[in-house]
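Bumping my old thread because nobody answered last time. Still need a sequence for this structure:
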């Protein structure tokens, strides 16, 4: 509808509609963990036969709810250092991504399965003591697993007498090469499932289809 103005305009005022709260569909992201000035952590050493230089993995933790009954530690950042510059670019990328996931909070244990499922197309290697590693990335995943078990974020032990017995049995019956060709475990994601006594058994987590 058109309104004709017959008088001279001397002033004007903008009339705003009543404010109505609209429902928002924006999903708010949880705030990132804050870094304290001083963090406690642990450093782990990885030495592979593929390089004369070792990798040193440092995982620093933050303490949540200090002084309360539910006080606990959780990882905040990870650093990987080595004199070997061959893998420098992807190592830097990996540590930044993992650190970002740590700072995001929540359940970070899925990183263990994802990393331990990575295999090197050129072949894996055996750690000191005879344990097979499908790749260097997989061993980094095992280090993270060890750290999460230590601070109480993951249950279980990395090595039990029963699991060690299965590993010795597999080595005696199948040989080193058979263990290296293990299939992926549905439970932990490691390439460590072999056939023992007509039963598929994971030499990493001990999972067995026969109970």
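Sorry it took so long. Here it is:
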């Amino acid at each position: 509808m058109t309104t004709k103005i017959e008088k001279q305009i001397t002033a004007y005022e903008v009339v705003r509609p009543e404010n109505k709260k609209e429902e928002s569909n924006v999903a708010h992201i949880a705030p990132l963990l804050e870094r304290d000035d001083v963090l406690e952590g642990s450093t782990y050493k990885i030495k592979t036969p593929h390089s004369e230089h070792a990798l040193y993995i440092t995982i620093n933790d933050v303490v949540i709810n200090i002084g309360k009954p539910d006080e606990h530690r959780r990882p905040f950042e990870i650093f990987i250092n080595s004199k070997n510059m061959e893998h420098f670019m992807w190592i830097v990328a990996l540590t930044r991504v993992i650190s970002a996931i740590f700072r995001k909070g929540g359940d970070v244990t899925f990183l263990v399965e994802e990393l331990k499922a990575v295999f090197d197309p050129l072949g894996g290697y055996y750690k000191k003591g005879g344990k097979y590693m499908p790749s260097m990335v997989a061993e980094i995943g095992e280090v993270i697993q060890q750290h999460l078990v230590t601070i109480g974020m993951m249950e279980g032990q990395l090595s039990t007498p029963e699991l060690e017995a299965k590993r010795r049995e597999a080595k005696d019956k199948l040989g080193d090469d058979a263990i290296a060709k293990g299939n992926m475990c549905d439970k932990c994601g490691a390439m460590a499932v072999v056939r023992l006594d007509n039963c598929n058994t994971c030499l990493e987590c001990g999972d067995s289809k026969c109970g």
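The helical segments are 88-104, 110-116, 136-150, 161-180. Let me know if any region looks off to you.
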